[in-house]
Amino acid sequence: MAFISDRLARIKPSPTIAMSMRAAELAAEGRDIISLSAGEPDFDTPLNVRDAAKAAIDAGHTRYTAVDGTPSLKRAIADKFARENGLDYTPSQITVGTGGKQILFNALMATLDAGDEVIVPAPYWVSYPDMVLLAGGTPVVVECDQVAGFRLTPQALEAAITPRTKWLILNSPSNPTGAGYDRAQMAALCEVLLRHPQVWILADDIYEHLVFDGFEFCTPAEVEPRLKDRVLTMNGVSKSYAMTGWRIGYGAAPEALIRAMAKLQSQSTSNPCSVSQYAAEAALTGPQDYIRDSRAVFQRRRDLVVAGLNACAGLDCPVPQGAFYVYPSMAGLIGRTSAGGTRIDSDEAFANALLDEQGVAVVFGAAFGLSPHFRISYATANEVLEDAMARIRQFCAGCN
């Protein structure tokens, strides 16, 4: 009898974390490494949020809370949905977890049975398919290439739906591409979903506030209220407020799903960190200037990186609508050999050679389900990005 569960054989370690760890190991060996692999803002958490956390500690709010969130945080989340998204939820329709990842995991674990299908547009965040597999479901990956703007089309969605389809996962703006769905594009997908009442929508809105060039964010339950009773709208404080380490995500959905997710959480992590919950409440209810200011910085960084990559031989980088990633094609380098002698026959070979020869860590596109591409996170300082662009340009110029 094997000791390790067969369940773990269905999934693989996160490629983004693996690349970040490899970059960290090389840096520890004394190599000059620029890591553009992690999706984490480089800003400090806002001062009012840090102050709220300290005050919570001093007030003794360091004990267990309700399993899936304090009443006051749930109220703040409900107010946020009403204020920013025009969505009416009661606190009983809100759940809070240890990061957005737990919200997604709880929802899939609480609803999927063997044979249930989940539509996952590709490129996708690396964890979506593995979460589905771990929950016993079947990911149905639908390729959304650069020609389609990395977006799922209504026709492709219709073709992917079967009687076993239980969820569609929709991430806008997207990790890894930064592509977003405008209101007309979202409405067209919703029209398809209205015809298939067995399909629920998992809306991953974690990059909601990181949108550029006047792009207007929208979410499925807002665009098509008739779908609201089968939508889980997931969000969190990690990206918008630079609170990745605080580990607070939240979701809103019909009460029956929320209760099922809370039941699961009660037997896994129990409540999220009490102090982090008070900090998240301060983030949602306090001044929002931080979001506006950080968004402007990210847009300037995006422009720097897009221009830098498009100046590299063999690369083609579209302009994303949001998040803090770019997803350039490196098709023009396939079949070439790097200056260090590596045959570039895939985006994984490209990423490994770039790290080995120039000390720049990126994540290869196959990890996100669409090649030949790679992902860069530009959530780091301008001077670091400029150095990275120069190194990538030198690497590409050396490929022949």
From TrEMBL:
Q: Does the keyword Transferase apply?
A: yes
Query: Mind telling me which residue stretches traverse the membrane in this protein?
Result: none
The Gene Ontology terms for molecular function here are: L-aspartate:2-oxoglutarate aminotransferase activity; pyridoxal phosphate binding
**Which residue range or ranges hold the Aminotransferase class I/classII large domain?**
32-392
Gene3D superfamilies, per database record: Aspartate Aminotransferase, domain 1 (3.90.1150.10), Type I PLP-dependent aspartate aminotransferase-like (Major domain) (3.40.640.10)
Provide the assembly information: Homodimer.
Record protein name field:
Aminotransferase
